[in-house]
Amino acid sequence: MEKQTNNQIKDGFIFGGLLIAILFVTLYIPVIGYISLLFLPIPIAMYGYRYGWKKSTLLGLIVLFSISVFAFYFFVVSLPLAIVATLAGVFIGEALKSQRHPYEVWGRGTIGYAIGFLLLLLMIHLLSDQSLVTEYRLIIKESLDSTQILLGQAGLDLSADDLIAIERDMMMLLDLIPAVLMIISMIYSFVTQWLIHKALNRFDQTKLAFPKFRSFQLPKVILWIYFFIVIFSWFNFSGLPMVGLVIFNAGLILGVLFSLQGLSLIVYFFGKRKQPKLLFILLIIFILVFLPGGMYLLRILGIIDVGFRLRKLIK
User: Fold this and answer.
1) Mind listing the pLDDT tens digit for each residue in 89-116?
2) Which of 29, 149, 171, 193 has its CA 20 to 30 A from that of 90?
3) Are residues 125 and 9 in the same domain?
4) Cβ burial, residue 182 (10 Å; 0-12/13-18/19+)
């Protein structure tokens, strides 16, 4: 028991120091900040994998407290990032310790990242004392003014109605923030989990790995959820804008998942037919070039695969 306590304390110092070091790199070397953010949850996740989510949460809180005591400025600017790292790390570490399926670990990590990023936006809004929506409106106005000047010099003029229509379309991008936030969280969670797999396999002699992408399979319940979302999207929620926003973003997120399902089916098909990888790469490039049409076709293919299990029909 005493040896285990000593190991927890020793690992706490090691992983806590590693987390602070990565925070320093993220804040003071902005060029690689977006990349180092992928490594931030690793110390918390590894500690949680060894000792549980309560101990890993406590480690994150101790790191925040230590920073606030010894470097207040660093604490203020690193607090949001430390919260993102702690949440994502705790979610991934506990899922790994519970021996969840890798895709379930990925889902939990995505939730942790999404909550962390949401808190990050809220804290930026509170600390900067500025509205992100207002700032975005100013950027749109400046962009439209510059565009109007350039078109005027070229002998082209935009009417007031055209400017209003363009501004309305650009403001609609704000409605996509939840979906974009979730998709970014999915990407970050996947890469971070892959890095954690490599670290744990190296230092803890585990054999963690993602299953082959061709085995990616969404449960049928996702299809039913998507079906009801499509039905609800036909209704007019002008009096309940938040409900309409949730349905809109949920549909986009599920659409991305079905596109992944369709892509995995193509990988499965090419593997069964023993087709050259170059042909598959060319097909993916073709799909990406013709976005969003290519993604829409992948989504349809993914929906059919989930509903009818096309892989069972492929010999």
Assistant:
1) 999 999 999 999 999 999 999 999 998 8
2) 29
3) yes
4) buried
